[in-house]
Protein backbone atom coordinates (compact mmCIF):
# COMPACT_ATOMS: atom_id res chain seq x y z
CA UNK A 1 0.00 0.00 0.00
CA UNK A 2 1.21 3.49 -0.65
CA UNK A 3 2.19 5.85 2.15
CA UNK A 4 -0.73 8.22 1.50
CA UNK A 5 -3.34 5.46 1.71
CA UNK A 6 -1.84 4.21 4.98
CA UNK A 7 -1.79 7.75 6.36
CA UNK A 8 -5.41 8.33 5.33
CA UNK A 9 -6.62 5.03 6.83
CA UNK A 10 -4.76 5.64 10.09
CA UNK A 11 -6.22 9.14 10.37
CA UNK A 12 -9.74 7.94 9.59
CA UNK A 13 -9.61 5.08 12.10
CA UNK A 14 -7.97 7.21 14.81
CA UNK A 15 -10.46 10.07 14.47
CA UNK A 16 -13.42 7.67 14.34
CA UNK A 17 -12.28 6.09 17.61
CA UNK A 18 -11.89 9.54 19.16
CA UNK A 19 -15.41 10.47 18.05
CA UNK A 20 -16.89 7.27 19.51
CA UNK A 21 -15.12 7.91 22.82
CA UNK A 22 -16.37 11.50 22.74
CA UNK A 23 -19.99 10.44 22.27
CA UNK A 24 -19.71 7.85 25.05
CA UNK A 25 -18.04 10.33 27.38
CA UNK A 26 -20.65 13.09 27.08
CA UNK A 27 -23.64 10.98 28.03
CA UNK A 28 -24.06 12.67 31.42
CA UNK A 29 -22.94 16.15 30.51
CA UNK A 30 -25.32 18.81 31.78
CA UNK A 31 -23.46 22.03 30.81
CA UNK A 32 -24.91 23.15 27.51
CA UNK A 33 -24.27 26.15 25.33
CA UNK A 34 -25.26 27.59 21.96
CA UNK A 35 -22.85 28.42 19.16
CA UNK A 36 -23.45 31.52 17.05
CA UNK A 37 -22.45 31.08 13.40
CA UNK A 38 -22.69 34.30 11.38
CA UNK A 39 -26.25 35.40 12.19
CA UNK A 40 -27.67 31.97 13.10
CA UNK A 41 -27.45 30.06 16.35
CA UNK A 42 -27.28 26.32 16.85
CA UNK A 43 -29.23 24.13 19.22
CA UNK A 44 -27.88 23.73 22.74
CA UNK A 45 -24.98 21.28 22.72
CA UNK A 46 -22.79 20.07 25.59
CA UNK A 47 -19.63 22.14 25.91
CA UNK A 48 -17.52 18.98 26.02
CA UNK A 49 -18.96 17.95 22.64
CA UNK A 50 -18.13 21.34 21.14
CA UNK A 51 -14.54 21.21 22.38
CA UNK A 52 -14.03 17.57 21.45
CA UNK A 53 -15.49 17.92 17.98
CA UNK A 54 -13.32 20.97 17.28
CA UNK A 55 -10.25 18.96 18.36
CA UNK A 56 -11.24 16.09 16.06
CA UNK A 57 -11.89 18.48 13.16
CA UNK A 58 -8.46 20.01 13.70
CA UNK A 59 -6.92 16.56 13.73
CA UNK A 60 -8.64 15.68 10.45
CA UNK A 61 -7.57 18.91 8.78
CA UNK A 62 -4.04 18.55 10.12
CA UNK A 63 -3.72 15.07 8.65
CA UNK A 64 -4.08 16.52 5.15
CA UNK A 65 -0.90 18.58 5.44
CA UNK A 66 2.31 17.04 4.19
CA UNK A 67 5.48 18.07 5.97
CA UNK A 68 8.64 17.82 3.93
CA UNK A 69 11.41 17.98 6.47
CA UNK A 70 14.87 17.56 5.02
CA UNK A 71 17.66 16.94 7.50
CA UNK A 72 20.79 18.48 6.01
What are the defining features of this structure?
72 residues, mainly alpha, two-stranded antiparallel sheet, 2 helices, elongated
Describe this structure in words.
There is one protein chain. The protein has one domain (3-62). Helices cover 54% and strands 11% of the residues. The protein has 2 helices and 4 strands, in the order αββββα. It has a two-stranded antiparallel ribbon. A two-stranded antiparallel ribbon has the order 2-3. α1 (3-25) packs antiparallel against α2 (47-62). The protein is elongated and about 45 Å long.
In total, the number of strands is 4
Return the string of H and E elements: HEEEEH
Structural class: mainly alpha
- The span between the termini is 28 Å
The radius of gyration over CA amounts to: 16 Å
Give the overall average pLDDT.
Answer: 81
Helices, strands, pairings?
Blueprint lengths: L2 H23 L6 E2 L2 E2 L2 E2 L3 E2 H16 L10
Helix pairs in contact: 1-2
How would you summarize this macromolecular structure in one to three sentences?
By secondary structure, this protein is mainly alpha-helical. It has helices at residues 3-25, 47-62, and strands at 32-33, 36-37, 40-41, 45-46.
